[in-house]
Amino acid sequence: MEKTHTRAALKFVKASSQSAAVSWSSTSSGMTKDELKDGLFGKSKASQKSLTKENTKPQDFKLRTQERALKRAMFNYEVATKLYIIEQQKKQAEKLQKMIEEEEIRLLRKEMIPRAQLMPFFDRPFFPQRSNRPLTVPRDPASFRIVSGKCGTRISSGGLYDFQGSQGLKPIR
């Protein structure tokens, strides 16, 4: 196969170089030498051309435009479907959210309705019960003092949270 292509290429190169050389040399009658040779040896050249034409067949080429157009159409369809599904999901979520909010509003309105309290029972006296929590220890008001420093004025009780100046604070960098 490769030899036939190289032979055809060589013949094409020879023919083109000869036609270029012949075109410069022409006879007085206006016909080139090549045309004169063609007239004399036309039969042999026609048989050579027919041989080369039989050997060379154009290969069928397949354009991928139809295939690419089909793939693109499928892709566009998938994108449109995906967008439609997302839109439907958003609508469904909004609808659900709206239903939840309406239910909450309905419950709040129901709770806001003023209702009468039950009448206390006066026939049974109220006896308070003693609490289980320990008693609080009272503090002397003199234990509170005002501390002034570089950071401002603070009230401390008993010096538990007393910071002098800016020792407890670090500068911001």
From TrEMBL:
GO terms for biological process: mitotic spindle assembly; regulation of mitotic spindle organization. Residues 19-29 have a biased composition (Low complexity). Residues 86-113 form a coiled coil. This is TPX2 C-terminal domain-containing protein. The keyword Protein biosynthesis does not apply. Residues 19-59 are annotated as: Disordered. It comes from Carpinus fangiana. Keywords: Coiled coil, Cytoplasm, Cytoskeleton, Microtubule.
